[in-house]
Specification:
By secondary structure, the protein is of the alpha+beta class. It is built from 2 helices and 10 strands; from the N terminus they run ββββββαββββα. It is globular.
Length: 203
């Protein structure tokens, strides 16, 4: 089950994850009819964890084979709020959450984008977690979230988050942050152009 290092702002009583540690203690249930692997940027990611914490909320996490769930390098996220269609409210809630996090952690940064042609939104943001000494960072996480609506087989509108989360730990953090200066837009473009698999919610 996923654990959040940082508490999320709920919308309403629902949110997309902030800084999550996926775990695979038991077999994941494919709630979205997307068992995997998901091929992103020429790499395969398998369903490692899923959750259905409320009647209208579903979460899937995908990682590469052999990558530890609690210390992954890249994770694919697919979250669904069933029966919802107000993308602006979801995105605004996420931005509000990031602004609050930034008040206590200047490392938190974000950018948001709107694709008016496709009616989609994206948020690109960075989070960090401190080491036990409180003086150094133990992990840095960069997330690119893509929000869109889709219609299920019953004709009902739903909100989907497709996200890619990348991480660095300890001694690799400086290299990770420096690399963002030269290829920051690369991941944003790949997420925005990704052909998201068809979703069929399984109740």
């Amino acid at each position: 089950m996923s654990k959040n290092l940082i508490l999320s702002v709920l919308l309403p009583a629902i949110t997309f994850s902030v800084f999550c540690f996926g775990q695979a203690n038991k077999p994941a249930i494919d709630y979205l009819s997307v068992p995997g692997p998901i091929v992103f940027d020429k790499k395969s990611y398998n369903l490692s964890w899923s959750s259905h914490p409320s009647p209208d909320f579903y979460k899937h996490e995908y990682i590469e084979k052999g990558d530890p769930a609690d210390s992954y390098k890249v994770m694919i996220l697919m979250d669904v709020i069933a029966g919802a269609s107000d993308l602006k409210s979801v995105v605004a809630s996420k931005i509000t959450e990031l602004k609050k996090l930034k008040e206590g952690n200047p490392m938190v940064n974000y950018q948001s984008f709107e694709n008016t042609k496709q009616g989609e939104y994206m948020i690109d943001f960075i989070l960090s977690a401190n080491a036990a000494d409180g003086k150094t960072m133990s992990a840095v996480e960069r997330n690119v979230y893509r929000y869109k609506t889709f219609t299920d087989n019953s004709g009902k509108a739903n909100i989907l988050l497709f996200g890619v989360s990348t991480r660095a730990y300890g001694a690799n953090i400086d290299y990770f942050l420096n690399s963002l200066k030269t290829n920051k837009n690369d991941l944003v473009n790949k997420v925005s152009q990704f052909n998201i698999p068809k979703i069929v919610i399984r109740n």
